[in-house]
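Entry 14. Structure prediction run on the chain below.
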Amino acid sequence: MKDLTNYFVNKNIIFKELNEVFPKDLKSRKKIKIYDGIGIDKNYYAIFILDAKSRFLRKNANDLMDLCHKLIKLKEHNYKKKELLISSPLCSHAKKLLKDNGWGVRIDFM
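Output returned:
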């Protein structure tokens, strides 16, 4: 979590509160790290960290958005900022789909 907070401090985002949500809580078996937090600017963040070797495709983007909807139902809050931090290659169609749905995609993590 220290790496995550340092990463966002470099992007001028500071969190008041940052909590990890386990995929098991969302009834998922995916290997993904999920955090929900509150910034000092009073924005609510849903952060998804994915570390994979294969390319992130449009199908994966749809699964990620479904996972976000489950997180919204679990926490009973609609997040203003949704971020995907990824270290693997990203399909252009998946990136466009996420951007069109209000996601921030950062490929340079880890």
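The beta strands are 15-21, 33-39, 44-50, 81-86, 103-106.
Filed with the rest of this week's runs.
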